[in-house]
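thoughts on these tokens:
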Amino acid sequence: MKNNIIPALRLTLVSFAFFCGIYTLAVYGVSRLVPESMSFTKAKQGYYENVGQPFTGDQYFNSRPSAVNYNAAGSGGSNKGPSNPDYLAEVQARIDTFLVHNPDIRKEDIPSDLVTASGSGLDPNISVEGAVVQVKRIAQIRDINVWIFRNILRL
């Protein structure tokens, strides 16, 4: 029994010293080297950095909608089920808005990620399909040939 307890106690003490002392100081030291502009929690104009944000101009790709108005302090989904009337009305309003700004797109061609919020409410990423349906609008506004634009994006 002594042969098992002593090595276990040594391992516990070494792990405790490493993870509570050495590792913690190493992570803290690295965090001090990172510039403050790279901080994930620094507030800037009411939004937190490195999360999704709304783009309302037609010259930009529309990002994924947010259930929490892109506020990282209160991230989370809407918790409304797919049959909830309020949720369905909100998605329909997003579809209608998207169709107003992209009149050449049919309703059934709109990818779901452009009209539904992510689980965190902060995800800015859109699918390739979500980018493709917006290319014509953005190319037209920015006066870029659609073929060139698609090749730049490699779509």
